[in-house]
Amino acid sequence: CPKNKGGIIWYDQCFLYVTTIKEEIPIKTNYENIFSMYNSNNVRGDVHFFAKRVMDFLSELTLKVEKTIKGVHVILYAAGEKKLGKNKLYAMVQCIQLTLDCKSCLEWSIKELFKNSDIKQGARVLGTNCGVRYELYPFLRS
């Protein structure tokens, strides 16, 4: 299809999705074109406690991305930081505005971060509809 073009760019702080392909709006989540990246550093201490705290914080951020503005449902972006023992945990979640079910996409991505028992100090899941990321260092500009 020479005139139907699209692309996605994942940055550290967000992602950009551009397409000329006419799709049904809102767009169903594409769970096939999602991949994960992990920080190479292992977690010190109780990895299960760490994973639980990260999941709780990402779930908390997920609740902040959906908003209704003047009767229009808008899906955006949420980021933050949280004290985690001696460290700070930095995280972000994002959906494209056209996604049918942002919350489900983010919940699936959060579970994907911890599907194996090799818990890392940072990770991200990148997809065409949504993305999540956490690290023990600030990766966002304030």
What does this 3D model show about the protein?
This protein is of the alpha+beta class. The chain contains two helices and nine strands; from the N terminus they run βββαββββαββ. A hairpin with a 2-residue loop joins strand 6 and strand 7. The mean pLDDT is 83. It is found in: Secreted. Belongs to the cysteine-rich repeat secretory protein family. This is Gnk2-homologous domain-containing protein. It comes from Brassica cretica (Mustard).
Quick take:
This protein is of the alpha+beta class and 142 residues long.
**What does the overall shape look like?**
globular
Report how far apart the termini are: 41 Å
The largest pleated sheet is described as: 5 strands, antiparallel
CA-atom Rg in angstroms: 16 Å
The helix-strand sequence is EEEHEEEEHEE
Helix content: 10-25%
Mean pLDDT: 83
Write down how many β-strands occur, each being a DSSP E stretch of 2 or more residues. 9
Q: What percent strand?
A: 25-35%
Widest β-sheet, arrangement of strands: 3-8-9-7-6
Determine the number of helices (DSSP H or I, runs of at least 4 residues): 2
Name the structural class: alpha+beta
Q: Oligomeric state of the chains?
A: single chain
